[in-house]
Design brief:
The chain is of the alpha+beta class and 297 residues long. It has three domains: 2-108, Helix Hairpins (Orthogonal Bundle); 130-180, SH3 type barrels (Roll), CATH 2.30.30; 186-267, Alpha-Beta Plaits (2-Layer Sandwich), CATH 3.30.70.100. The protein has helices spanning 2-61, 66-91, 96-113, 115-130, 170-174, 201-214, 249-267, and strands at residues 138-141, 144-151, 155-160, 165-169, 178-180, 186-195, 225-231, 236-245. The protein is elongated. Mean pLDDT is 80; it is low at 4-9.
């Protein structure tokens, strides 16, 4: 009896020692692997930030397009972090081939569920390749007008003239008309007005040509023009066209408008009176045939 008890106690001690040693070694092994993974992530995060700064400075010195520079900087950062994640999986003995298969399977499922998002991604890639506009350009697209802040793979960010930040899906941008207001170095300023019938056409033309010569900021080439476009019951319709560098176009538009008003007033050339249109609609009572009764007062 005593021998059996002693044997049982010995077996218990052996099992406890064995399990204790295995648990301790497992915890130590997991702790070492966890510390290594955290170290890899920390080094990768620091390296990604460092490479991001170096690449940004290099691209600025190389005078590469700003839109493409921002995209390349973000791609490099996420590539470094992606390699770090794969390295951490290897530290924990998780096969990358199995992980890749899971990613592919999940990608197919997510792709079917997010077809619209993928179309935005494809449109973003086309915008980055074709570059119909760049960062800081003023653009009319998808019903908005403003300055481009960022072009991403999924969305394009724009700041409108009233300082509202608008995020537009790339599929809406690439799938519709794009009007780039700053793609050319020069832009046209145009004024159209109607002078009264009492105004002498030759005198009016001389006045407008002098106006273009005296207005500051009008480029000599392309040559400015004064055109008599038509005549109607109100008077003679004139169009004045002049060109300026794109950043100064709006200043020239305002300056021409002010100078034109002062010149016409000084020369006594009247503007045609505004046309007043009145529309009247007659309704029937209760949607029937009974007309309204009008009484003369």
């Amino acid at each position: 009896m005593t021998t059996a008890v002693n044997t049982t106690d010995l077996l218990v001690e052996v099992v406890v020692d064995y399990l204790g040693s295995n648990v301790a070694s497992s915890l130590i092994s997991f702790g070492i692997r966890l510390a290594g993974a955290l170290l890899v992530l920390a080094v990768a995060w620091t390296s990604a930030s460092f490479l991001q700064r170096i690449l940004r400075r290099t691209l600025v010195k190389a005078k590469l397009d700003k839109t493409l520079s921002v995209f390349l900087v973000h791609v490099v950062r996420w590539l470094v972090l992606g390699v770090a994640v794969l390295a951490c999986l290897s530290i924990f003995n998780i096969g990358t081939s199995t992980f890749s298969a899971l990613i592919v399977t999940a990608g197919v499922a997510v792709g079917l569920a997010l077809q619209g998002t993928l179309s935005n991604c494809a449109a973003g890639a086309m915008l980055l390749m074709l570059r119909p506009f760049r960062v800081d350009d003023f653009v009319v697209t998808a019903g908005y007008y403003g300055q481009i802040v960022q072009i991403g793979l999924f969305v394009t960010t724009m700041r409108t003239l009233d300082a509202i930040l608008v995020t537009i899906p790339n599929s809406s941008v690439f799938g519709g008309p794009i009007e780039n207001k700053t793609s050319d170095k020069i832009r046209q300023a145009q004024l159209t007005f109607t002078a009264g019938h009492t105004a002498d056409p030759d005198h009016t033309r001389e006045l407008l040509e002098k106006l273009l010569r005296d207005t500051e900021g009008v480029l000599a080439e392309p040559k400015p023009s004064v055109d008599l476009c038509g005549i109607d019951d109100r008077g003679l319709e004139w169009t004045v066209r002049a060109f300026a560098p794109t950043p100064l176009r709006w200043d020239l538009q305002q300056r021409l408008t002010r100078n034109l008003k002062l010149a016409l007033d000084g020369a006594g050339i009247p503007l045609a009176p505004a046309r007043l249109t009145i529309e009247a609609t007659l309704h029937r009572r209760h949607m029937g045939t009974e007309p309204l009764n009008f009484q003369q007062v």
